[in-house]
Amino acid sequence: MSETKKDDLSVVVFANRKDFFISKLCIASIRFYYPDVEILLVKDRLNGDFNTATLCKVFNVKVFELGKRYFGWSAGKIFFLLNDKIPKKRYLCLDSDIIFIGNLLDKLNLETGDFVLHPEVYPQPFSDMVKSVFLDEEKIKEYYPEYTYPGFFFNAGQTVVTPGLLSKEFFLPSFNPDQYPYFRDQAIFPLVDQSILNIVIPINMKNGSIKVSTVPYMLWSVDFFKDPTNQSIEKFSNGDDHPFLVHYAGDVRTHIIKMMKGSEILLFFRKFYYSKLTNFEIRLDRIQDRLAAYKPLARILYYKNRVLLELRKKTKGAQG
Question: What is the span of the domain harbouring residue 273?
Answer without folding.
Answer: 10-118+155-165+210-318
